[in-house]
């Protein structure tokens, strides 16, 4: 090997586990031999070789090798017997595939290298350093953090699943330290997967900070007494020996004795007949065809090769490590990203899986398979005894995947009682191809409808609630089993009330939301089922009745309940089969893994906590609002010259446009005069007093009916707090919405609205902290549109509205009239929402021509904004969607509409969505990060995040902890975009503490 050569080193063991966990298992049709991992490995290797030889897409290797672990017994076991002792034995179906994968490597005419007593990483390290010494370049095909210590200016890594190069800057961005300090960082943080102890309580961020301060681990340990934080100092001193031991375990050896020299790793052409013979033996039809075409050989003329199968050997199979799948197991940390299918999805879609490395084809094959396979309600089982339930749970453990759904007495998860639950599994015993699913319902709280005052005595033959919950707890809290649900947040909160915390889950509703946000009106199960499975599920009203005949689910006949509930679980599992690979095909796994799924427990916990409201304050405010509305009513009657029903649109329209003859009226499809809020605002802006009083009256009466009168009715009978419910999938931009009660729409620009916030109070001894992003959407706009003036102003902490006014109108910032600043503020925020000259004119009460001049001048002063708008519209017309800075997509399919008004509306929405959506994503990231940070600071039980309202988070904190807590919250929120996005504009958060929400805001 010489200067200018390029060596590719494939982490073969990592490929095995990625193939096993990421792709649906597959059995050979002729004899049932498990070959799913072999199929995935071969497809991944073929794709890598094909791309590597294409000089038009990147580097071309001259040398190539695939490296494997020999076994789990290595020299590290001699250093530390507990090393990797927590790993389980390989699954039975994976054992025969270890040898087959090595045979596959040889069939590809590639060096297949392993060395007894050493791990694959050590062999890779040895080859990498030897090649580097010759002046050659090295690419390590892996995403394993253990290999990042090898990265240099000539040694890179490549994550083939994400198509991402990993160089020195990427290591620094991910871990906060350069590659040469990765050994020390890992020695401090340890590794729970490999059972490397590290220093307890030291995470990557803290380790990176300490290494930046002290330089290296030895210096840190020698000068540990200088560490200011008492607990951290004592912890590091006490565990210094563990850190040194851990460094021995994580440091890769570069002196492994090699059986093959560097020059022997020259990349040779594939032997077409040899490779085709192996693939035909494995019965990989599609890949056989592709290879034969590429190698220009006649597959039909080539006989299958003889391949020995080692059914019981584990000599070449290290202990299974789900962590080595690179975060592919659902429920993995939020900063990891999984591909198409993320759990051991046993024995599913044998034939369709041959092309499983291509998620788009997998989506089509699965949807087609399920559409062709109708749901059969007669196969559903009612589980009435523990023995049967235990058998189903055992099957769920074996499969590693189960759909789960609850049936309850209420849609309010905080007050609902569990009536039963349903499960769905892949039914491999009934159909070995894996296309069948079996489902069951477990009734727990059904009643007969007669027998006592509560609606009936318990129905017969139900498992006792306590026994069933114990089984459920074991199942749902086992993170090695993926639980699939539709709207998991409801089930999560419900089960949490029963002292069960669901771990390791996927949510089909959120998958659909990430994939099709804005494209579909709903992400509910029924609509998804009809769209993807061609099946219309049983309607709830067909089971529980409707209107006066409606009964609670606990009074539904168990046979009917079984058909309905088991179908829900069945459909949910089928939807998961289709939607999970769609995420990978659309390259949206990161959005789901980092922004959606991790937020489920965060929101469920917030909903469970609720917030206290002061009934006396609400009662007083209700009276004040009633008096204000009554005074306005008197004014309205005088101005109208008669009494009428102000709340009647028809009567109001007749008064305004009939009796008074005001201009600007228009009629609705029913022939009535329109009295919408916009119509009244336009009339008020034109100087008419009566419409203005009507607007004010509507606002007061709405505040009274929606909040001061209604909020006491939402107080929970047991917790005595108000528990709102957050919807994660109701907006196209990623913003959350709340309901029952809706706390997002309390007006803050009016004195009356702010008074309502005074009724939201902290409990005695506590305070509320309100942490609010300052002008986050304008900051995002400055970042994405690259506006130098705005970026500089935000960096300098300048009043952005005064700066805009100065830029536009040539008025000095010092002594600027308030009216000038107000106009600039209206334009700044209006531009984000694509405001028109008509809209701005109404807002500022000026002529439309003057408003048009303002907008024109704004774009002249900030031309980047116009460029951003035009490029965004063009992108949306081309793709049908726009993206936030974190990759979330908002779809606008009607942006190409021939209707000008529809098209214009979609264009304005498409311009706004990346701005509003990016801001929403930032606060989601903050919410996900805050609770772990508080736990780490020892404040987890003393600080509770209660509410999220637009750009604001509200916490309840013990009074003595306010000073400690506030900086942590502010820091997390201001840095929430990192490390995914390094914003060119600083985010700013204002935080205050008080005993009520209004004073804290």
UniProtKB/TrEMBL annotation:
Pfam family, one: DNA_pol_A
Protein family per UniProt: Belongs to the DNA polymerase type-A family.
Domain 5'-3' exonuclease positions: 5-268
Domain Exonuclease: 400-585
UniProt record, GO biological process: DNA-templated DNA replication; double-strand break repair
Job of this protein: In addition to polymerase activity, this DNA polymerase exhibits 3'-5' and 5'-3' exonuclease activity.
Protein name: DNA polymerase I
Keywords carried by this UniProt record: DNA damage, DNA repair, DNA replication, DNA-binding, DNA-directed DNA polymerase, Exonuclease, Hydrolase, Nuclease, Nucleotidyltransferase, Transferase
Annotated source species: Rhizobium tubonense
GO molecular function: 3'-5' exonuclease activity; 5'-3' exonuclease activity; DNA binding; DNA-directed DNA polymerase activity
EC number: 2.7.7.7
Quaternary structure and interacting proteins, as annotated: Single-chain monomer with multiple functions.
DNA-directed DNA polymerase family A palm domain span: 753-961
Gene giving rise to this polypeptide: polA
Domain 3'-5' exonuclease: 380-584
Domain of life: Bacteria
């Amino acid at each position: 090997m010489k200067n200018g050569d390029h060596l590719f080193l494939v982490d073969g063991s990592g490929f095995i586990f990625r193939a096993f966990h990421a792709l649906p298992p597959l059995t050979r049709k002729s004899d049932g031999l498990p070959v799913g991992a072999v199929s995935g490995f071969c497809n991944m290797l073929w794709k890598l070789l094909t791309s590597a030889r294409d000089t038009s897409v990147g580097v071309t290797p001259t040398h190539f090798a695939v490296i494997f672990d020999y076994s789990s017994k290595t020299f590290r076991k001699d250093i530390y017997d507990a090393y990797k002792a927590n790993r389980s034995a390989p699954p039975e179906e994976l054992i025969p595939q270890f040898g087959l994968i090595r045979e596959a490597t040889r069939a590809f005419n590639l060096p297949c290298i392993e060395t007894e007593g050493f791990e694959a990483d050590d062999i890779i390290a040895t080859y990498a350093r030897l090649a580097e010494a010759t002046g050659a370049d090295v690419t390590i095909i892996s995403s394993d953090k253990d290999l990042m210590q090898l990265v240099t200016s000539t040694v890179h890594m490549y994550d083939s699943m994400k198509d991402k190069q990993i160089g020195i800057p990427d290591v620094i961005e991910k871990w906060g330290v350069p590659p040469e300090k990765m050994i020390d960082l890992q020695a401090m943080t340890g590794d729970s997967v490999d059972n490397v102890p590290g220093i307890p309580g030291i995470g990557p961020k803290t380790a990176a900070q300490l290494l930046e301060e002290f330089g290296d681990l030895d210096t840190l340990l020698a000068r540990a007494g200088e560490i200011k934080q008492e607990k951290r100092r004592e912890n590091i001193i006490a565990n210094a020996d563990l850190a040194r031991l851990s460094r021995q375990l994580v440091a890769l050896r570069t002196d492994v004795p090699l059986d093959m020299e560097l020059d022997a790793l020259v990349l040779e052409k594939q032997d077409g007949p040899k490779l085709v013979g192996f693939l035909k033996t494995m019965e990989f039809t599609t890949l056989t065809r592709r290879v034969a075409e590429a190698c220009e050989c006649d597959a039909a003329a080539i006989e299958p090769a003889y391949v020995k199968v080692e059914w019981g050997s584990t000599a070449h199979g290290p202990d299974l490590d789900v962590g080595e799948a690179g975060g592919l197991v659902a429920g993995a940390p939020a900063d990891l990203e999984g591909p198409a299918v993320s759990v051991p999805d046993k024995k599913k879609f044998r034939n369709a899986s041959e092309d499983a490395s291509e998620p788009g084809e997998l989506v089509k094959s699965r949807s087609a398979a399920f559409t062709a396979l109708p749901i059969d309600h007669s196969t559903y089982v009612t589980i009435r005894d523990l023995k049967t339930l235990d058998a189903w749970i055992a099957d769920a453990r074996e499969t590693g995947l189960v759909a789960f759904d609850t049936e309850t007495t209420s849609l309010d998860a905080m007050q609902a009682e569990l009536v039963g639950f349903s499960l769905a599994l892949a039914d491999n015993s009934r159909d070995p191809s894996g296309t069948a699913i079996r489902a069951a319902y477990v009734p727990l709280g059904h009643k007969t409808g007669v027998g006592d005052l509560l609606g009936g005595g318990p129905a017969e033959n139900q498992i006792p609630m306590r026994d069933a919950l114990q089984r459920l707890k074991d199942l749902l809290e086992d993170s090695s089993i993926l639980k699939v649900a539709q709207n998991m947040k409801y089930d999560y909160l419900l089960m949490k009330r029963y002292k069960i915390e669901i771990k390791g889950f996927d949510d089909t509703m959120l998958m659909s939301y990430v994939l099709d946000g804005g494209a579909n009106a709903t992400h509910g199960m029924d609509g998804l089922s009809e769209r993807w499975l061609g099946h219309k599920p049983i309607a709830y009203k067909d089971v529980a009745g409707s209107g006066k005949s409606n009964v609670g689910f606990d009074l539904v006949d168990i046979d009917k309940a079984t058909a309905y509930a088991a179908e829900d679980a069945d459909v949910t599992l089928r939807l998961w089969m289709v939607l999970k690979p769609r995420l990978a095909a659309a390259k949206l796994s990161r959005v789901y893994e980092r922004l959606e799924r991790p937020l489920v427990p965060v929101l469920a916990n917030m909903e469970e906590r609720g917030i206290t409201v002061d009934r006396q304050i609400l009662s007083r405010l209700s009276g004040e609002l009633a008096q204000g509305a009554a005074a306005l009513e008197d004014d309205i009657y005088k101005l109208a010259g008669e009494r009428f029903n102000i709340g009647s649109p028809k009567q109001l329209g007749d008064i305004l446009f009939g009796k008074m003859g005001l201009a600007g009226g228009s009629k609705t499809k029913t022939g009535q005069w329109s009295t919408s809020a916009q119509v009244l605002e336009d009339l008020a802006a034109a100087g008419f007093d009566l419409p203005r009083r009507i607007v004010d009256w509507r606002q007061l009466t709405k505040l009274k009916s929606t909040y001061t009168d209604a909020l006491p009715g939402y107080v929970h009978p047991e917790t005595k707090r108000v528990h709102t419910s957050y919807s994660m999938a109701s907006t196209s931009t990623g913003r959350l919405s709340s309901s029952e009660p809706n706390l997002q729409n309390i007006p803050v620009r009016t004195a009356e609205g702010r008074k309502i916030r005074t009724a939201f109070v902290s409990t005695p001894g506590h305070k509320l902290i309100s942490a609010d992003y300052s002008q986050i959407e304008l900051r995002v706009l400055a970042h994405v549109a690259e506006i130098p003036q705005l970026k500089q102003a935000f960096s300098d902490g300048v009043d952005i509205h005064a700066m805009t006014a100065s830029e536009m109108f040539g008025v000095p910032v010092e002594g600027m009239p308030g009216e000038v600043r107000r106009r600039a503020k209206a334009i700044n925020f209006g531009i984000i929402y694509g405001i028109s000259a008509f809209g701005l004119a109404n807002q500022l009460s000026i002529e439309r021509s003057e408003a048009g001049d303002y907008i024109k001048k704004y774009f002249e002063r900030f031309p980047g904004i116009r460029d951003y708008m035009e490029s965004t519209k063009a992108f949306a017309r081309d793709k049908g969607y726009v993206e936030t800075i974190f990759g979330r997509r908002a779809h606008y399919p009607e942006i190409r509409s021939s209707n000008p008004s529809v098209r214009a509306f979609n264009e304005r929405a498409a311009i706004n969505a990346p701005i509003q959506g990016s801001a929403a994503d930032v606060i989601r990231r903050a919410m996900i990060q805050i609770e772990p940070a508080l736990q780490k600071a020892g404040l987890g039980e003393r600080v509770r995040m209660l509410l999220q309202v637009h750009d604001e988070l509200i916490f309840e904190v013990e009074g003595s902890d306010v000073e400690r807590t506030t900086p942590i919250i502010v820091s997390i929120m201001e840095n929430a975009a990192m490390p995914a996005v390094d914003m060119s504009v600083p985010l700013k958060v204002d935080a205050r503490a008080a005993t009520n929400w209004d004073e804290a805001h």
